[in-house]
Amino acid sequence: MTVLATQEYTAAVLVAVPLVVALELLVLRTGLFARRAYWVSMAIVFFFQALVDGWLTKLVAPIVIYEREEISGIRFPFDIPIEDFGFGFAMITLTLLVWERAGRRRPGTLDER
Amino acid sequence: MDRYQYLLLMGACVLVTLPLEFVFGARVWRRPRRLLIALVPTLVIFLVWDVWAIERGQWTYGSRWVSGIELPGSLPLEELVFFVVIPVCGLLTYEAVGRMLAGQRPWRRSRELS
Fold first, then answer.
1. CB contact under 8 A, A8 and B53
2. Is A110 on the interface with B (CB under 8 A)?
3. Which domain holds residue B42?
């Protein structure tokens, strides 16, 4: 638990990811996680995140500079702190969940596409 | 131009994903109300997270690559742009992929309402 106590960004991501998953499973229940389109999209999103985030975090000329004490120190791929992928997962999944919810015509009915 | 690098990167993300809307028929930009609803919670939560992280010294921004325009909470303008642009990219991907997996022709109008 030392990780949670000291590395704040790591800890925040470890809280955010299960929170978003719980939001879907317990509250919104949009069915997003059962959709193939979601998982294919996330694979594409992670690929492009590696490019964009890789540019933002590259250690030779970083746009975003991380405090070494607050991250796990695992940087992959390129110089991306591994936590960023949890951050990205939470951010995109939350957006898609609300999008799905907002697009539902009637409560309890999944829209067809 | 250096100090517009972050903004230019975000602009590139918008441009690169535009074909998803207009060639692959994603219909995200064209459903502005639903888009706004989808963006607001993410925007609020992640801006709060960002301000907290900056305040706690978890990360900072390379002053050479940002415009220098700051929002309350020492938040670079670029971060606000990021939390709009990247979720939109995610939505465009999701909608375009959904359209393709459903085997619909890109140019066919969706039956779905806004």
1. yes
2. no
3. 2-101
- How far apart CA A66 and CA A73 sit, in angstroms, is 10
Whether residue B114 lies inside any domain: the answer is no
- Domain count along chain B: 1
Selected for mutation to probe chain A from B8, B82, B93, B104 (highest A CB count within 10 Å) is B93
The pLDDT tens digits for A68-101 are: 999 999 999 999 999 999 999 999 999 999 999 9
Does the distance separating the beta carbons of A95 and B42 come in below 8 Å?
A: yes
Tell me whether residue B111 is in a domain: no
pTM: 0.90
Calpha distance A85→A22 (Å, rounded) = 18
Radius of gyration of chain A (CA): 16
| pLDDT tens per residue across span B11-45 | 999 999 999 999 999 999 999 999 999 999 999 99
Closest listed residue to residue B84, CA positions, set B74, B97, B71? B71
Nearest CB partner across the interface for B53, out of A9, A96, A113: A9
